[in-house]
Design a protein that fits this description.
Blueprint (H helix, E strand, L loop, with lengths): L8 H12 L5 H7 L4 H14 L15 H14 L3 H7 L6 H13 L35 H32 L2
Length: 177
Amino acid sequence: MRKNKKHSLEFKLSLVDRIVHGYCSAKSIAKEHSLSYDMVRRWHKQFESFGIEGLRPRGGNAVYPQSFKISVLQTIQEESLSLMEAMLRFNLPSPSIIVNWRKQVAAHGFEGLKPQVKGRQPMEKNDKLPNKRKKPASKVPLTKEEQLQQELEYLRAENALLKKLHALVQKDSKHKP
């Protein structure tokens, strides 16, 4: 079976059409195309519930609010819904989402269902370290000593840059015949 393969809408429709018209069963179609039986069955159920819209690819990963996740889990518990029934009722892309929510609740309680910020955390500002490139806050002209200090920092940076450039040129010329 293939993993993480995106299937076109036309492909899904052709398979579901064969099931709807009684030409083949979901199991035989899954076997014929080396697909998961559950996936083919899910496409069939989504088509029955939502028509062609149920088979269309969804744009990006949806972020569901905590209250929605809790209501889904409570409805499943109260009405003894299967994962497939809950997925269809709440128009979720896959039953695995519900399984993940259950795991989060088991591990962290309902607080685990809060949407989490994705990506890299912003760096904390550390005002204790001096920022050498910080501009003076006031419009007071710099003293002669401060001007010389700035010029020294600039020249040191320029010198370091030129040394690195020279080293790169030397390294590159050694590699060329």
